[in-house]
Specification:
Elements lengths: L3 E4 L2 H11 L8 H23 L12 E6 L4 E6 L6 H9 L6 H14 L1 H11 L10 E9 L6 E6 L4 E7 L5 E8 L14 H11 L7 E4 L5 E3 L16 H12 L5 E9 L5 E8 L15 E5 L2 E7 L11 E6 L8 H6 L1 H24 L1 H15 L1 H5 L4 H7 L1 E4 L2 E7 H7 L6 E6 L3 H6 L4 H6 L3 E4 L2 H9 L2 E2 L2 E5 L14 H17 L4 E6 L8 E4 L7 H9 L9 E5 L4 H12 L4 H17 L7 H16 L1
Parallel strand pairs: 2-8, 12-14, 17-18, 17-20, 21-23
Antiparallel strand pairs: 1-6, 2-3, 3-7, 4-5, 4-7, 5-6, 8-9, 10-11, 11-14, 12-13, 15-16, 19-20, 22-23
Bound molecules: adenosine-5'-diphosphate.
Length: 623
């Protein structure tokens, strides 16, 4: 087939532009990315040869070779790994399939107005792999032949809009990437990537742990191996430096920043494994996207088996990155079998416990680090309260929530309980869309008056876990907006009750389309009315969430509670006593209901009719 010119996918084009104009200050990372890809390609070939005995490939000397040419200003990275077919080249190199691309580009557009630093930060979080070559090269050639195929492909591009693909009949097995380097930056000799010393420095710094030999071809045709090739997870913890962990984290996570925490665990005996895990310091960009990749890498006796092994980590810990290397699994194990494998399940159990215990230790000893963890990843962790009942207690132990106690810092449940005054026997919470709306909601009045602390829960997941988690430390979770409140004060006395009976039953009938009952309450000190649900009811926020997902939730009628002490309520009662059939009273009942909705930050079902009711009332006061 002749040479074909193809356009990059739109997202790819935008990212390439950013690379060409190089907003990232640490350009060295391009080499790490290319070596990382080459190493993956070697892993894949070895695995393929184990799994397919008929595959005709030579795996006797799998390695990566680097070659520099100062005169031509070229740098070549070659591997004899799995290679790519023509279709794969177009699909993998010509497009970006990562979830979160669109989100990141949108953020980048904003960030670019803010400054290059933020843009670089985003790119670093996303990791652009192969495209980072365009930070240092103005033309890149890639020649590749897929294992088992008898012809190769040549890909070439300047990164400006299009690339070419052509047949390459003589291509050796594997992939060769040749960078035609940009003119030398004379200010900074360290940036000369055609200089073997520079390349050597970068490999030692960023890619030492790669288990395949990375060789440097010298002018004399000799090759020497640059990396020590030790699997980090198999080395004693004390022998591995923080820097080595960081670089390994970057290799497995595609995040260019530092990890927040490194976690090691291992088991010996009949069932041996080693694991090296990382917690990121920032929420991954795809943390809440449906098709996000998750899971750690699985190795069996140092042989790479798969990326994104979901069976090893539950969904709520999807941000955990790293490696699990198990001794006693078959190299042929498939994803389907993994899900049911008892050993895998056992590893997963321990892994979860270890991660939760690590966060607990952070909470107890490193407040700031814990605060970062929780701010970035807490929203995902809280999903575990719903999906992982076995570890619910351990998860509750590491949660923290905003509360009325301190507007700046969230509180742990332990601290909340420790502050509970005599007489308070439940953990009170409010759910809703924003802290401000919750703080100003009439539901808070009695709790504020009593000095009871209330958790202010504003994440969507909060709406759900509060319904399935009954208690913490024997204290029940209790919504300030549900059920009848009894804060141990005096009951509404019988005389008052009797005095309001007629009004309440008339209002219940009048508002029957909107509420299921109207009653007197202890909940309010300054407001006239508020709406409360029953314990199992959908909350208004949940109803909204259903609608946002395109579902019509069942209509929930709540109870309208009235504050007998409020002049408006007292006045209404008197007016109703004087003339029960006054048409104006109906308007007032509806207004009271609308006001209760507005006060909790809710939305009126028919704002126009509320406004006309209000306007009629206001007119009356003036005439
Ligand atoms: P990432 O490595 O983050 O997936 P890249 O843009 O670096 O993104 O690479 C895209 C894909 O192209 C890789 O996932 C891999 O499938 C393929 N690829 C890149 N380099 C090589 C290589 N040297 N050998 C085989 N496949 C490769």
């Amino acid at each position: 087939m002749s040479t074909e010119t193809i356009e990059f996918q739109a997202e790819a084009r935008q990212l390439l532009q950013l690379m060409i104009h190089s907003i990232y200050s640490t350009k060295d990372v391009f080499l790490r990315e290319l070596i990382s890809n080459a190493s993956d390609a070697l892993d894949k070939l070895r695995l393929a040869s184990y799994q397919d005995k008929d595959l005709d490939v030579d795996t006797s000397d799998l390695h990566i070779t680097l070659e520099t040419d100062a005169a031509e200003r070229m740098l070549t990275v070659r591997d004899n790994g799995i290679g790519m077919t023509r279709d794969e080249v177009v699909e993998l190199i010509g497009t970006i399939a990562k979830s979160g691309t669109a989100e990141m580009l949108a953020q980048l557009r904003q960030a670019r107005e803010v400054g290059a630093e933020q843009a670089a930060e985003l790119i670093g979080q996303f990791g652009v792999g192969f495209y980072s070559s365009f930070m240092v090269a103005d033309r890149v050639e890639l020649v590749t032949r897929k294992a088992g195929s008898d012809t190769g492909v040549r890909w070439e591009s300047t990164g400006e809009g299009t690339y070419t693909v052509a047949d390459a009949p003589d291509a050796p097995q594997g992939t060769t990437v040749t960078l035609h380097l940009k003119p030398e930056d004379t200010d900074d000799a360290l940036d000369d990537y055609a200089d073997p010393a520079t390349v050597r420095r970068i490999v030692t710094r960023y890619s030492d742990f790669i288990t395949w030999p990375i060789r440097m071809a010298s002018a004399e045709g000799e090759q020497d191996t640059l990396n020590s090739r030790k699997a980090l997870w198999a080395r004693p913890q004390k022998d591995v430096s923080d820097e080595e962990y960081t670089e390994f984290y970057r290799h497995v996570s595609h995040d260019w920043r530092e990890p927040l925490q490194t976690i090691r665990l291992s088991a010996e005996g009949t069932f041996e494994y080693q694991a090296l895990l990382f917690l990121p310091s920032h929420a991954p960009i795809d943390l809440f996207l449906r098709d996000a990749r998750r899971g750690v890498q699985l190795y069996v006796r140092r042989v790479f088996i798969m990326d994104d092994c979901e069976a090893l980590v539950p969904e709520y810990l999807r941000f955990v990155k790293g490696v699990v290397d198990a001794n006693d699994l078959s190299l042929n194990i498939s994803r389907e079998i993994l899900q049911r494998d008892r050993q895998i399940q056992l590893i997963r159990k321990r892994l979860v416990k270890k991660v939760l215990a690590t966060v607990k230790t952070m909470l107890e000893g490193e407040a700031e680090r814990y605060a970062t963890f929780w701010r970035e990843l807490g929203r995902a962790v809280k999903e575990g309260l719903i999906s992982d009942p076995d570890n619910r207690q351990a998860i509750l132990e590491i949660c923290s929530f905003p509360s009325t106690h301190d507007p700046e810092a969230p509180t742990t449940l332990h601290d909340y309980v420790a502050r509970m005054p005599e007489g308070q026997d439940a953990i009170y919470y409010a759910t809703g869309e924003s802290r401000a709306a919750l703080e100003n909601s009439p539901h808070m009045e009695a709790f504020r008056a009593k000095g009871y602390e209330v958790l202010l829960l504003t994440d969507p997941v909060d709406e759900v876990w509060v319904d399935v988690v009954p208690s913490f430390a024997d204290k029940a979770f209790s919504s300030v907006a549900k059920g009848e409140v009894d804060l141990g004060g005096d009951d509404v006395d019988d005389d008052t009750k009797q005095g309001f009976e007629a009004l309440l039953s008339w209002m219940t009938a009048t508002l029957s389309d909107d509420v299921k009952d109207v009653r007197l309450t202890h909940r309010l000190t300054t407001s006239a009315a508020c709406l409360v649900g029953d314990p199992g009811d959908l909350t208004p926020t949940l109803e909204k969430m259903y609608r946002a997902m395109g579902q019509e939730p069942p209509k929930v009628k709540r109870t309208l509670e009235l504050n007998a002490q409020h002049p408006l309520v007292g006045g209404l009662r008197n007016a109703h006593e004087r003339q029960p059939d006054d048409a104006g009273l109906r308007d007032l009942a509806h207004l009271l209901h609308g006001m209760a909705l507005l006060a909790e930050g809710g939305e009126l079902p028919e704002p126009a009719s509320f406004v006309s009711l209000l306007s009629r009332q206001l007119e009356r006061t003036l005439t």
